[in-house]
Design goal:
The protein has about 600 residues and is an alpha+beta fold. It has 18 helices and 26 strands. Strand 2 (about 140-145), helix 6 and strand 3 form a beta-alpha-beta unit. Pathway: Protein modification; protein glycosylation.
């Protein structure tokens, strides 16, 4: 990891001005590391205080200003105390789970006395209360990676971890600044962040040279970690009461049983404008063939206490043993900036000897950014970067990778794949079909249907694929990011980045969204509009199309359904997602140029 650590150009040790005695004396059930964290040792006053504001006077223009460059309300965040309490949204059953704490702390220390007083005990489902060998919960290094993060949400995230994590479990907090710009909010405030950091126990800051991207920055954090486990958190979160014990308890059981367990908390919602904390958000996740996240049904109750296996993770919040992270090979250093890493690391965990589980009794609130008041880019991540990252993740998909590339695209290459090849050989990772059969059978079912309705092999499963362009208007077929059955299927100026404009034409004569596949069939409706429905036998008559070659262009066709032609018209789509709409109109005549469609890739037959 020397190359990784070479990116660190500033290293600041937190807690250098902290006298531990007053902190320990100020410990209470709401402040596990004391009420005096972040207080000036001379005055005993907090070095950061909220900025009051009468929000009944906040105008829309004020909201726009407050959301600029962050997509959340910085003014509201600045008005909230750093150590505010959050609602305990755990179910009643979670409050009756007991965790064995056997801390590595000298028996005579004040911390040990407090830790024993504050600890609860957990008996795993396969342990009886009379078990002579309690499970010791491992320590963790909490890692925050941030880039241009405003000061108050970042500090509040750190405070929440210090206030709600038992001291003997929290070994350290590592903050990795991924080369924030000189005008970043907390840098523009001078050295306030570093001064504040020196008043926070267990916190360390590593500043990186230039922007390295989330994956490499996380690798830096992992290389600096010294606890038994690593816990990654986003920089705009607030952990809930009892958040860490379920995660560490499950990892400890895995250590006992020789199982490499990666665990994720339930992610609650912190409103981007009001900063109100609301239960529910993200728990178990699946994915589309285009490597987009999607919710999935599961037979186990999400509000129970038992772990639930999840095909993938959301990406920002997870815990795993440091030894397993080293065995896995860390995050892919060839991935850039952001995007696709949650798919890749999830695939690698499942295929290379690990499990990924959601722990319902662990809750963490997350600020989900909103573009309601500001529509700019918080982080500029070019489309080709995400395309490259997702194509690298598709390495693990073996013969199913072409299904991902239908949506993702494959321009520009993927870089050196030796990192994955070496891991796959070293860990003897399983094939992707094992993952489909044993972890995500819902996706396997759709793959088998696609093979049946498409071609005879996954390497060339469709008659036509890619963008579908009308040259007369410069528009392409587009599902317009509308997900519900019956929503409009439209046309939009071609952007050539696949995604919502990736289409396929199957051997059974259906036109599908390459991103949504069986959930995105181009379907004729009685009003001559085109809508998106799930592919089904019940609608087969309205979902089959004939393609007729058109002119000298060997990729241009007319797409005919029930004797009428797919036509693009310059009329706003019903949901105002586009200035163009699709219609089913009589073929030929003056409409012929609006009925000629060119596929990116089209078989000769």
């Amino acid at each position: 990891m020397r190359a990784v650590l070479a990116r660190v150009h500033t290293y600041v040790l937190g807690g250098t001005r902290v006298d531990p005695a007053p902190l320990l004396q100020s410990v209470d059930p709401l402040h596990f590391h004391g009420r005096l964290i972040g207080h000036d040792p001379a005055t005993r006053l907090p070095v950061w205080t909220p900025t009051p504001f009468d929000f009944s006077q906040e105008t829309v223009e004020m909201k726009r200003e407050a959301h600029t460059k962050s997509c959340y309300n910085k003014r509201r965040s600045n008005a909230i105390p750093l150590d505010r309490s959050v609602p305990d949204v755990r179910t009643g059953e979670c409050h009756h789970q007991w965790y064995y704490h056997v801390p590595h702390i000298p028996a005579s220390s004040t911390s040990a006395t407090f830790s024993r007083a504050m600890s609860t005990l957990h008996l795993s489902s396969d342990m009886q209360p009379t078990s002579p060998t309690p499970i010791r919960l491992p320590t963790t290094s909490v890692i925050f990676v941030f880039y241009n993060e405003p000061l108050s949400p970042l500090l509040r995230a750190i405070y929440s971890v210090l206030n709600r994590t038992p001291p003997h479990l929290l070994h350290e907090i590592i903050l990795v600044d991924d080369g924030s710009d000189a005008e970043a909010p907390w840098l523009a405030e001078g050295a306030q962040f570093e001064r504040h950091l020196q008043l926070l126990p267990k916190a360390r800051l590593a500043r990186l040279t230039g922007r390295n991207g989330l994956m490499r920055a996380r690798n830096v954090g992992a290389s600096l970690a010294t606890a038994e486990t690593i816990t990654y958190l986003d920089a705009h979160i607030e952990v809930g009461p009892g958040w860490l014990e379920p995660l560490m308890g499950r990892i400890a059981e895995g250590m006992r049983d020789g199982i490499n367990r990666v665990v994720v908390p339930g992610i609650d919602s912190i409103d981007a404008d009001t900063f109100n904390y609301t239960a529910g958000g993200i728990d178990i996740l699946g994915h589309t063939w285009g490597l987009g996240q999607t919710g999935i049904e599961h037979s186990s109750p999400r509000n129970g206490v038992e772990p639930i296996r999840s095909p993938i993770m959301a990406g920002g919040l997870l815990s795993l043993s440091r030894k397993y992270m080293d065995l896995l090979g860390f995050y892919d250093p060839e991935m850039e900036l952001w995007g696709g890493e949650e798919m890749e690391i999830s695939f690698r965990i499942w295929l290379c000897g690990g499990t990924l589980e959601f722990m319902p009794c662990s809750r963490v609130g997350h600020v989900f950014r909103s573009n309601k008041y500001w529509q700019g880019q918080v982080y500029k991540v070019p489309g080709e970067v995400i395309m490259k990252n997702k194509n690298r993740a598709a390495f693990w998909m073996d013969e199913y990778a072409p299904l991902a590339r239908l949506s993702v695209g494959n321009e520009g290459g993927v870089g050196d794949m030796k990192h994955y090849e070496n891991i796959k050989a070293r860990l003897q990772c399983k094939p992707f079909r094992w993952y489909l059969q044993n972890v995500y059978p819902q996706l396997l079912k759709s793959a088998d249907i696609l093979i049946k309705t498409g071609g005879s092999k996954m390497s060339d499963p469709f008659q036509a694929s890619g963008f579908v362009r009308n040259n007369h208007t410069g528009t392409c077929l587009d599902h317009l990011h509308l997900k519900s059955d019956g929503s409009a299927f439209g046309a939009y100026p071609c952007h050539y980045t696949h995604g919502s404009q990736s289409m396929v034409y199957t051997d059974s004569h259906m036109i599908l969204s390459g991103e949504q596949l069986l959930d995105g069939c181009l379907t004729r409706s009685a009003d001559n509009l085109l809508r998106k429905y799930h592919c089904t036998d019940d609608l087969e008559a309205d979902q089959t199309w004939t393609m007729e070659r058109n002119g000298n262009n060997d990729r241009a066709v007319t797409m005919v359904g029930e004797g009428k032609c797919l036509t693009v018209v310059a009329e706003p789509e019903q949901d105002n997602k586009s200035a163009f709409s699709l219609r089913l109109l009589e073929c030929g005549g003056e409409l012929a140029p609006l009925q000629s469609w060119e596929w990116e890739s089209l078989r000769d037959s």
